[in-house]
Amino acid sequence: MIKTPMVLATLFAATLPLMAFAGPIESACNRSDRQAATRSLCNCIDKVADMTLRGSDQKRVASFFKDPDRAQDVKMSKRDSDDAFWDRYKVFTTQAEAFCAG
C-alpha cells in the first residue's frame, strides 16, 4: 500500500518544473513574521497547496497568515461552504505537515 507522503513526493517531483512562481500561500508565508517561516518551508507548503487546494482556497488560506482569527471564524462558521472549505483545509494542513516537516 502506497503511503500518502510517497504519492505527494511523486506528484511534487512531476510538477516541479511547472511551478516556477511563488503562489499566494508561499508569498504570504514569506511575508509573515513567523520565525519558522523559511523560504524552503514556505515553498514546500505552497507546493502541497498546489496539489491539494483550489486557487480560491489558496487565496483564502493565504489570508490566514495576515489575520489568523479569520481561520477561527471559518472553522466556527455554520455555513455549508465554510464547512466544505474547512474539510479541504484540514487535508491540506495534514499533508503539508507530513510532507514539509523536516
3D structure, described in words:
With 102 residues, this protein is an all-alpha fold. It has a domain at 36-102. Helix content is 75%, strand content 0%. It has helices spanning 4-15, 24-31, 39-52, 55-66, 68-76, 80-100. α4 crosses α5 (68-76). The radius of gyration is 14 Å and the shape is globular.
Summarize the structure.
The protein contains six helices and no strands. It has a domain at 36-102.
Given the structure, what is the number of helices? 6
Over the alpha carbons, how many angstroms does the gyration radius reach?
Answer: 14 Å
Determine the structural class based on helices, strands and strand pairing.
Answer: mainly alpha
Percent in helix: over 70%
Shape: globular
- Give the N-terminus to C-terminus distance in angstroms: 24 Å
List low-confidence stretches.
none
| Percent in strands | under 5%
What is the chain-wise order of helices and strands?
A: HHHHHH
Largest sheet: none
Mean pLDDT: 86
The count of β-strands is 0
Write the layout of secondary structure elements.
Layout: H1 4-15, H2 24-31, H3 39-52, H4 55-66, H5 68-76, H6 80-100
List the main descriptive attributes of the protein structure presented here.
mainly alpha; globular; 6 helices; 0% strand; single chain; 102 residues
